[in-house]
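Re: that backbone. Tokens:
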């Protein structure tokens, strides 16, 4: 796993584990090149007065302002909700995240009561096994995001999207838990080499 100090974290992990592994100060350091420990104030204080930080010149001050402006523009955007009406839409959504992955990623597509996408979460990276895809890890995420239903998705780097025995076992286990939790598993999409298999269509999700 990634080193605890910032330099080792960058060296060992880069962006392989997603940017959420970095603190606010570390993200600012990546953007400006200034050591994380220099950012001692809150994000708001940093964005309002970057010149108060040791090592910030005019150029890096503009970088901080640029990051703030991008964040503000993102918050102002109101994209049309993505609606998942069936396996084809679910597979298209999952493909946006998984098409280029060389390792197996097991993920959750989180939906509200109208089947609008409200989140995407990577549960595990590596071979799919019951031990690493535990119902606790899956449904704790669904509960936190107030999901009304979930769709499971993962990729087969081999290129063959045919469900394995382990795929079926994990799906059935999670499907049973979903019924108990009242957060149904609507489908499990498996991607491989531009193709996909819907385990719902195969009768493997009850």
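Recovered sequence:
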């Amino acid at each position: 796993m990634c080193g605890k100090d910032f330099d080792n974290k960058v060296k060992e992990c880069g962006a392989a584990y997603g940017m959420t592994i970095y603190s606010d100060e570390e993200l600012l350091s990546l953007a400006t090149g200034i050591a994380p420990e220099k950012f001692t104030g809150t994000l708001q204080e940093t964005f309002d007065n970057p010149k108060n930080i040791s090592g910030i010149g005019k150029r890096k001050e503009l970088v901080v302002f640029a990051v703030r402006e991008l964040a503000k523009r993102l918050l102002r955007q109101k994209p049309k909700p993505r609606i998942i009406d069936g396996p084809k839409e679910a597979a298209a959504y999952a493909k946006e995240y998984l098409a280029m992955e060389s390792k197996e990623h097991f993920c959750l597509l989180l939906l509200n009561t109208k089947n609008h996408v409200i989140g995407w979460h990577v549960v595990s990276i590596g071979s799919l096994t019951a031990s690493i895809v535990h119902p606790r890890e899956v449904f704790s995420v669904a509960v936190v995001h107030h999901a009304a239903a979930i769709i499971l998705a993962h990729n087969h780097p081999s290129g063959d999207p045919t469900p394995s025995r382990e795929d079926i076992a994990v799906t059935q286990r999670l499907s049973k838990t979903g019924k108990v939790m009242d957060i149904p598993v609507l489908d499990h999409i498996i991607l491989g080499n531009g193709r996909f298999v819907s385990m719902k269509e195969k009768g493997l999700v009850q």
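The beta strands are 105-111, 117-125, 149-155, 185-192, 195-198. The helical segments are 6-13, 24-32, 43-48, 58-76, 87-98, 135-144, 165-181.
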